[in-house]
Design brief:
2 strands, mainly alpha, 496 residues
């Protein structure tokens, strides 16, 4: 049994526990070193798992060697390894950025950060719906604590709003699990996938009710319209490093939608008859709501939050097509959008530190002390988000457009995606001109960007050119991952 699969869950747990024990609990520098080095080790682990998933077939890790449906199972394939790698890169950037001073407001910041990583990695690796619920709860507790870290009225209000909604989602998730278990007798994803075709009409009705609840739960996690209204305030009020890490949070919901409906329920007829149409239209409406939020934003942090919603809508709509081509496009665009929006959260904070009282608000403010560094970073991130060549956003949106089959679906999706790109170009151009050109006063009191913050920013900003530079092999890899996902759906636990 390959125990490397469980390390992305155990390693963040170990790092989190160590930060709360002597001598790390009494020394901030030691906690910083442990957190950053722990995140770097996680990058190495995820890279090894990517290589492992590429060179061989999907692997099932059965904890305690208990077989399904009773044992706890972890599944490593190319899709889950990709998500682990993306998470680890964000974690390294977030921990490095926070180590420059953001972690001084509380002794448990780094512990909470790694508990969050434990929950995220567990959600990506689990092959069991109940354990997906467990890791969702780990996410909820850690993310709530990180969101409220540092205190303040705005953070508290956003955090309470966030946690109440997610607690409701957790209750609905439990109801859905009960219905699924009552209908099929299992919560193991692979085992459930093999039993769907043999369910009676009554059992299928129970399963449909459970799926409706899961749509609400996963839609809330992903911030799909009309369950998106919590995200703007939550992400914009969070500290920069936390917001950058939170860029992956909505993708947990999208990943869950992909995993459950592509791997578990692909043989259920109702998925194609009403589940996918619901995802299609809600995805398109999410794009609209996200764009409207971007246009109405009065500061860069809020704009970045609504850009996350735009990317969610684009991904959910393409997911509903249920084809290998759509999954390939989804994976590449997910990589691009997550890294780009995370970079924008960090960039918004750096710009705010150099504009004085104006902060990141889109009003006249003090001249930025480092316009070359921050301006170049803003141009790269903005053009990538809009989808301008030669950056990764262009390739990602091209893949999305190509994945849509000819017909009315092409007309709808092309119109929404291309129309949103034009409006985002207008909004980001306006924001850039205000922040960098409409200036007043001097920069004598500006806070210059330190080495750690510069390193964290460059790690995320340079991702777009790199994704574009290696677009050929990366898209081929995403295509192989999509085909593997479809293949796994036809297997049972005994096939591993």
């Amino acid at each position: 049994m390959n125990h490397l699969i469980i390390l992305p869950i155990l390693w963040p747990l170990l790092v989190a526990l160590l930060t709360m024990l002597p001598p790390f609990d009494q020394n901030l520098l030691l906690r910083r070193f442990l957190s950053v080095s722990g995140s770097a080790v996680l990058v190495v682990l995820s890279a090894l798992l990517v290589i492992q998933s590429t060179e061989g077939p999907a692997q099932l890790y059965q904890l305690g060697n208990w077989a399904a449906p009773f044992g706890i199972s972890l599944l490593l394939d190319q899709v889950s390894s990709l998500m682990l790698c993306l998470t680890s890169v964000l974690a390294l950037a977030a921990s490095l950025y926070a180590s420059s001073g953001e972690d001084e407001n509380g002794p448990f910041f780094h512990a909470l950060l790694h508990f969050q990583l434990m929950g995220i990695n567990g959600a990506f690796l689990t092959a069991d719906l109940f354990n997906l619920f467990v890791f969702f709860e780990v996410l909820l507790i850690a993310s709530y604590s990180l969101l409220i870290h540092g205190g303040g009225k705005t953070k508290t209000k956003a955090a309470v709003h966030y946690v109440i909604l997610n607690l409701v989602g957790s209750a609905l998730f439990l109801f859905a699990l009960a219905l699924i278990y009552g209908a099929s007798g299992t919560l193991n994803m692979l085992d459930l996938g093999t039993k769907v075709a043999g369910l009676s009409d009554t059992q299928l009705q129970l399963l449909q009710a459970a799926v409706a609840l899961l749509l609400v739960v996963f839609g809330l996690k992903a911030a799909v319209m009309p369950l998106h209204f919590w995200l703007g305030n939550a992400y914009s009020s969070a500290s920069p490093a936390v917001a950058a890490l939170f860029a992956i949070m909505t993708k947990v919901g999208i990943y869950s939608l992909l995993r459950v409906f592509a791997m578990v329920l692909q043989d259920a007829g109702f998925v194609a008859s009403w589940v996918f149409p619901v995802l299609w239209w809600t995805g398109l409406l999410t794009i609209v709501m996200g764009v409207l939020g971007v246009l109405a934003s009065e500061d860069l942090r809020k704009m970045a939050s609504y850009l996350v919603i735009v990317s969610v809508g684009s991904l959910v709509a393409i997911l509903s097509l249920g084809t290998p081509e759509s999954v390939q496009a989804l994976l590449y665009y997910l990589l691009h959008s997550t890294l780009a929006t995370a970079a924008l959260f960090l960039l918004a904070d750096l710009i705010a530190n150099q504009r004085g009282k104006a902060g990141d608000r889109l009003v006249n403010g003090r001249k930025i002390a480092q316009p070359v560094l921050l301006g170049t970073a803003f141009i790269v991130v903005a053009l990538s988000i809009v989808g301008m060549p030669p950056f990764s956003g262009f390739i990602g949106k091209l893949l999305l457009l190509q994945a849509v089959p000819q017909g009315s679906a092409m007309l709808w999706y092309w119109s929404f995606l291309l129309g949103s790109s034009v409006l985002l170009l207008i909004a980001l151009s306006r924001a850039g001109s205000i922040l960098f050109w409409q200036v007043s006063g001097s920069d004598v009191e500006a806070r210059l960007v330190g080495r750690r913050r510069t390193g964290a920013l460059l790690l995320l900003v340079l991702a777009s050119p790199l994704l574009s530079l290696f677009a050929g092999p990366l898209t081929a890899w995403c295509q192989a991952a999509a085909m593997q996902l479809q293949h796994i759906a036809n297997l049972n636990p005994g096939a591993f």
